[in-house]
Amino acid sequence: MIFSLGSLTALVAGVFSVHVVQKQFFPYFWKDFFYLMKVIRYGARLEIFKLNSKVVTVIDTFVQQAERIPNKPFLMYEGISYTYQHINERSNKVANVFLEQGKLKKGDSVALLMSNEPDFICVWFGLIKLGCSVAFLNTNIKSRSLLHCFNCCGAKTLVVGADLLDSLEDILPSLQEDSISVWAVKNQSSRLEVQTLLDKMGQASAKPPPPALRAATSLKAATLYIFTSGTTGLPKAAVITHLQALKAAAGFWAYGGCRDDVVYIPLPLYHSAASLVGIGGTIELGATCVLKKKFSASQFWNDCRKYDVTIFQYIGEVCRYLCNQPKAEGEKEHKVRMGVGNGLRQDVWREFHQRFGEIRMCELYGSTEGNLCFMNHIGKIGAVGRSNFFYKLLFKYDLVRYDMVRDEPVRNKQGFCEHVNRGETGLLLSRIGPTSPFFGYAGSKELTEKKLMRNVFVKGDVYFNTGDLMAEDAEDFICFKDRVGDTFRWKGENVATTEVTEVLGLVDFIQEANVYGVEVPGNEGRAGMAAMIVRTGYEFSGKKLFDHVLQNLPAYSRPLFVRLQESMEMTGTFKQQKFNLVKSGFNPSIICEPLYFLDYTEKSYIPLTDRLYDSILSGKLKL
Fold it and tell me: CATH no. for residue 433?
């Protein structure tokens, strides 16, 4: 009895000691462990798909949910509830319209240009049920870029929302010449070249099309094309496979989401965050989502209370806009427990908690086309993700030294890249392999090749270049630092500097332009700025430049600032030098060269004065 009691005491003491050591030296052990178990569990499910060649896709899961919980609200939009069964049957009608027309077959690509509305989802699902791949078009892109998108994904059919049909007026002749049939989500149209969808859906059957049409035998088969701005100028069609769609759909679940959650989606559906993570994640849980046509900071919390929202999606801008709203009583009176998104600044993060309660903010990192994802499952403020020993075994990534002046990774005498030390900032590279494949872009192979880095550490290895500068601290938290190359983010959108440069080059008085992003205090991302040389014999015209960018560029891509120069600084490899321009910003008291500001009131680029500069910095002048 004495021996047993002593043994028990020793055992308790031993367990307590282990617990103390774990808490002190491995404080995140159990959270990491359970998160990793979820990752492995979901990965095993995908491996089973590979082995038996029977893939249960996101749309298959949706159909299963519609059979299991037909009367549960799947979608709430502008006060109207749409059940799983309703969306399922309506998407069947879309599929049957095109099936009866006989113009679409399995494997075809269809372009979708629609704003946030229930029929975006119905058309998307209906086309997927026919075995088609769907290309989501950014509703902000202009005619030149829009035509380019069709060439990328090979779409010969376009479905356009009723509110966006007029935006196609100037390119409809070009679409006809390219034999692209246009379908408007309307009952009738005055344009003979545009077919209407709603009237035909009213007559179509709600019976499901043959399941064999949507059946997928490979996780690597393309299901979507999502356009992303990159370093090549015009938008690129990132190939979204069933594997990527399924991984994205697991996001809410990995963070602890459940079927009782109500997800608020204020982001545009043409973005992977809203469509793949938001809609896909809602389906995976069997939950309900509230779709907003367009984000409204003033309506956000009222919507959350009205619909009993528990999870919301965000980008950094969303949270900043909410914090900038006037304070009101009852700001913490809501049921929101979790926010899922990316790009949340530390100062905004803290203020958000102070204003609206200790909502768990779940940052994640991953580009639309990328082969790597980080998730900050711990919730540490300022981190975009977390890694550990086991994660690194599954997903090979590295941070390498980057020369900001030369705008390229540092290579040693042997021609290989160098790792940064723990805590230092480096370029994030992700190794391409069986567990982290890279599917690239539709169209030219050159687009895909430009995102690859070869012979990084040994001859023959291949890495995906994220274009992001990151740092990993002593506790394995990953922090985003900056973007490199020819892309920056503004208003939650990627801006391709080469695309903007090409558009500016069409202005007669511009000899050369160099586009980059500059930091503006109090704003997320970087605002567009263009250094330019005026052609000999011409004069700078702020009015002409304003009219040109207004017509040819979406609002987020328009340079807010212009800097006139006599000559352009170049790198040793004859690339335009951006580093010093970015560093010097747009302060007229420091820069002696002429500076101009995009003024929508004056409808012109006007001289950037010290007074105007102070108004921008103080926030009196909203950008």
Answer: 2.30.38.10
